[in-house]
Amino acid sequence: MKPFATIRSGGAASWAIRIVVGVLVVYLMFWIPTSASNGVIDSCITALTLMAAAMSLNLLLGYTGQISIGHSAFYGIGAYTTGILVSRYGWSPFQTFTFAFVLAFVVGALVSLPALRIKGVYLALVTLALGLVFPQLVKAKKLVWLTGGARGLDKTGFRFTKANPTYEIFGWNPWGSLRGENIKPFLYWIAMIIVIIVYLACRGVVKSRVGRSLVAIRDNDTAAAVMGVNLAVTKGIVFGLSAALCSLPGCMSAIRTGNVTPDSTNITIQGSITFLIVMVVGGAGSLWGPIVGSALFVFITERTGDWSDPKQIPGILRPFFDWSHTPPGSGIFAVMLIALMFVAPFGIVGMWRRIVVRFVRVIPKPAGTGTLAPMAAAPVEA
Amino acid sequence: MTMLNARGLSAGYGPVTVLHDIDMELHEGEIVVILGANGAGKTTTMRAISGTIPRHGAVEFDGHDVSKMSPDAIVRLGVAQVPQGRGTFPELSVADNLRAGAITRRDGAAAIAADADRWYQQFPRLAERREQRAGSLSGGEQQMLAIARALMSRPRLLLCDEPSLGLAPLITQELFGVIERLNKEEGLSVLLVEQNANLAMHMAHRVYLLETGRIVASGSAAELSADDTIRKAYLGF
Amino acid sequence: MELFLQRLFDGLSQGSVYALIALGLVIIYRGTGHLNFAQGEMALFCTYVVYQCGEWGISIGFALIIGMATGFVLGSITEVTLIRPIAKKSPFAVFIVTLGLFQFLNWIDGAIWKDQPLPNSGVGSKQQSFPSLFPNKDTDFVNVFGAAIKKQSIGVFLLVLVLTGLLFLLFNYTKLGLAMRAVASNAESAKLVGIRTNMVLMMSWGIAAAIGALGGVVFAGINHNVNLGLMFTVFIYASAAATLGGFDSPGGAVLGGLIIGVVENLAAGYADQWVGQELKVGVALVVILAVLLVKPSGLFGTEKVERV
Question: Does position C308 have pLDDT exceeding 50, yes or no?
């Protein structure tokens, strides 16, 4: 099929599209905390938290091909670090982020040591075991003094004892009052900043020389080693970085809910599975994949959250779901995941790229200027 | 009587077509040899006939159209293949390898055991290593095992892909001797792919010469050897 | 001594369950080289079917047969409809599909049998009581060297021994077993000797899921109940067992399962201060890591050499 339009990467048209998309994204970013209802903001915080975690996992899986089913442990490390430092030692929540980041990086790099010898399925098993052990570890009797055991920690969020500043920008207050109930816009902005940091970190890694080494490792690590990529160091750093980035949304969750328990959402192994699923559904190996996947996941699970009561199901869907005694969100996503693997192994973003290239031809920059060709765009001119 | 008949056979790997539109036939009781240099498409021809790669065109065996059949179905019709690189089951014992070769047979364990004994006599070294894992055998022994295993299915046609590859000349001669004897004594038809023209020409009834996926010459071994240009260009003697 | 024997037998009966799930993992891995992430959840689905049969008044023995048949059908259908077409794409895609299947089965179990999907505590909120295959009352003990051993522990252990024996016969003395071993060894050549590899793989998945169903029923019997979180830790122990025994060795899987069951129970019993009930699952992690670092092919697996 002949494409309708041709766009030169780096040319005027390409920049115009980027600017339009950028403006839309930024507009939405500001519109939600200022104008949307508390419920919507809450859903957005959930989605943003999931996004950051899924993106960190994507860095590992999408770009090195290492499967981790244990990222909930790193998420948990973040949550517990913040929780312990805030509730037991009275740190300000913001100060805990760096600490959690470093701690998770170290643990992640340590985990990656065996990963150098272990591949594919076995690595998945090791990380799976790690993800299962973490919630049990924090319950252990010997650690109760620190972690609070099965009951966990509370008062891990912000405490506003003094009158707070209103954080106005030229008389405009995007996050509302920090006092009382309406802390949501403030939390929203913390979550948003985490997502932006994780996005920029992933983008920085992916579009760098390290990123190209990563793709080389993913495609054939024996060959990559022969070509002079230092496997041990590269894998170690990336695993550590991925773990460290995943701990940030964990910190966020502790601040948001004000308590941390071994059974908190995303700290159990189900968290790891959720990260994996939203990442793959959105598109493994693309920067926007986890963002799309997380947003969709939160949308679907929240929409179908009360469907265990058949009366809540919209009429047209009722015959399909009224026999179910539980909300069908995870089931729908599971089916979507399997179906996508058949039709679009690179997820929704991959599918989007495949459709777009039918209509718009993108001429990439000349080789050697440093952009990494996205994987899903490979079959374009085949 | 024509046993194997390929018409307009093309095949390849993914987007690359290796074999272009070849015609080939084999009569019952014949030894036909396909000669050609590296990359000429010899192994691809074998795979296209045995069904292990996707192919276009018509292939008939014994009047059955096998061009759409799966490899295992073709084997059950009576075509056995010795793949390149031997393709034994390395984790299985020699005896189990032979049993696996007879897995399509329905004539009872006693007949199968009798056949196995026959190949043990033919290849005494296999008999000594009956309970060893096939992966622990030497290259020559594995090649013997691969041929014995193929013959365990009592095929009417044996496809043999470069049996001489990586073998000492004496062992190769021994193997070819066995194949020739089977052909003479039991009327086994053989389609043999070889790079070693010298050896193979002696036992061939007819020869196809393959170059970059096309048949460039065919005829009896004597005819091809007699043609000076062909002999110099392709046969190298 | 008495306490040791009791813990040993408790470990053996738990280990038997791990062995059964590990057997399923190994049978599938040998055939296709894939790790079936949904192995535990397939078993759980079948266990729920057995539970349902019990609700309908069918005896546990007959219900078990129905459950295993369900497992066989579920396993074969999964192989034919999901795994086979996706396996051509990449091993990663297969992994993701089994993950999706895991999630789907877990949801559908909850949807049909009214349990919350994988509740955070790791146990289903609604624990339905489940009959045991073996005598399982507080009074059902056998006295061995002064130790009171549960009849159930002995029964479960014997059951696994018998099943292992049957599988040994299947693998070594039947045509299907020979075909399965041939496919595991060299799938390409298996086709060339006329083995219907598709059929063999389908049967492998079916058998694996049926054995898993047995494991699920036994484990639910030991626990007196079935709930959504039942098989999840079992799966990780089973993976550890398969890793320990070597992922391509059925005998190794059984032995690995028993070893891990025993080690886990002894560790939780004797090193209570350090391990305790909470960190039992840590035993699995330690075993997996240790095996992979010291001898990646496991105790009985075949070593594979990667050539550059």
Answer: no
